[in-house]
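Progress note, sequence design subtask.
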């Protein structure tokens, strides 16, 4: 263990010391601040960096550290049962939390001080907190407006959106944990993430498309959280994945533990046929739960200011004029490319497939999609036959 372990723990646990170090504008200045705090003025910069590197690689197993409320857990390494932490700089406004984490890592202090803890210590940190009750969950089929909705919600002054948090993703994929333990750690991670943004008490979690297969795990510990199911015309979803396949549509073997469809990639069918089966499995899983309490279905084709108002009311998020104007501006731009003005491309997506391919998609997916679409229409007081 490094000779500076106690000083390292004191630094990451002290708001005053962290603020002192955050004021540094260069690596040399930051190291000078650390030398002063650790009372080691004669240590060279290189030697100090080597010591800090070793400390960053050593999981903290002590209960003496205080991370909750200051540091954000952002990565979970299942094989080592290690949690990585960083200091947040403002709430998330990027389309995905991965991108928000990249922004946080640009902070000079985050480039030098990178603590990690055992999973047990993370759990102990969370036990100091009051349980967070999220304001809403977003489940989706992918490429159906979830990024737009989460982006709009992030514009409100009281909300904090975790969009496909890699921390939660890796925990839910860790099948080495018993379900009860997985649920406890999931609650702990959500509590810790929420505590880092205490000034934004309304937590919205946008799950991955495949997390619908972990519905029972999630819903058991959060039975009363309102959940929206976002759907879209299957042809448009699949067309988007032809251009750029998401993780669950790219044959990622790590998802095989979630559902048999992810383990059947090597069948005799085409790549499109397999993707149709993946989407069919997601549609069926979502359809089975669409009539449960605290669930609202929203179809991408009906997304407008009326739908937005329904979602905000459903999540209990207040909306003033300033927030409404910010959301209106956000809706003008592409959800994944904020600087690009949004242009409808429904016909372009349909033209991605031949008439025979469109027929195959329709045959396999029409029934499940229509069930969800009818629920979405009901929420808006509509009756339309569209598929």
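Output:
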């Amino acid at each position: 263990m490094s000779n500076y372990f106690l000083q390292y723990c004191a630094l990451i646990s002290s708001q005053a010391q962290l603020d002192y170090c955050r004021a540094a504008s260069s690596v040399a200045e930051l190291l000078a601040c650390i030398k002063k705090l650790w009372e080691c003025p004669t240590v060279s910069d290189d030697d100090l960096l080597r010591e800090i590197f070793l400390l960053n690689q050593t999981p903290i197993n002590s209960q003496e550290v205080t991370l909750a409320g200051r540091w954000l857990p952002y990565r979970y390494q299942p094989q080592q049962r290690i949690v990585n932490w960083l200091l947040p700089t403002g709430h998330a406004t990027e389309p995905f939390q991965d991108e928000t984490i990249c922004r946080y890592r640009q902070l000079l202090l985050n480039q030098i001080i990178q603590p990690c803890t055992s999973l047990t210590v993370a759990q102990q940190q969370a036990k100091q907190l009051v349980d967070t009750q999220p304001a809403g969950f977003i489940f989706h089929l992918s490429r159906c407006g979830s990024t737009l909705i989460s982006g709009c919600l992030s514009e409100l002054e009281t909300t904090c959106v975790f969009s496909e948090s890699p921390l939660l993703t890796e925990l839910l994929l860790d099948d080495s944990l018993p379900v009860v333990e997985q649920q406890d750690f999931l609650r702990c991670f959500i509590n810790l993430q929420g505590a880092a943004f205490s000034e934004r008490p309304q937590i919205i979690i946008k799950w991955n498309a495949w997390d619908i297969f972990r519905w029972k795990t999630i819903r058991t510990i959060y039975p009363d959280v309102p959940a929206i199911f976002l759907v879209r015309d299957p042809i448009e979803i699949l067309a988007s994945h032809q251009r750029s396949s998401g993780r669950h549509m790219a044959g990622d073997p790590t998802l095989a533990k979630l559902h048999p469809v992810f383990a059947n990639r090597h069948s005799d069918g085409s790549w499109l046929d397999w993707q149709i089966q993946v989407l069919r499995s997601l549609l069926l899983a979502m359809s089975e739960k669409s009539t449960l309490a605290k669930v609202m279905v929203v179809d991408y084709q009906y997304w407008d200011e009326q739908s937005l108002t329904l979602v905000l009311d459903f999540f209990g998020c207040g909306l003033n004029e300033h927030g409404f104007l910010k959301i209106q501006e956000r809706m003008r731009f592409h959800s994944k490319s904020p600087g690009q003005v949004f242009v409808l491309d429904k016909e372009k997506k349909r033209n991605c497939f031949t008439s025979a391919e469109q027929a195959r998609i329709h045959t396999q997916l029409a029934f499940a999609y229509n069930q969800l679409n009818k629920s979405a229409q009901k929420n808006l007081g509509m009756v339309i036959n569209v598929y």
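Residues 136-158+201-380 form a domain with the Rossmann fold fold (CATH 3.40.50.300). Work on this subtask will continue into the next period as scheduled.
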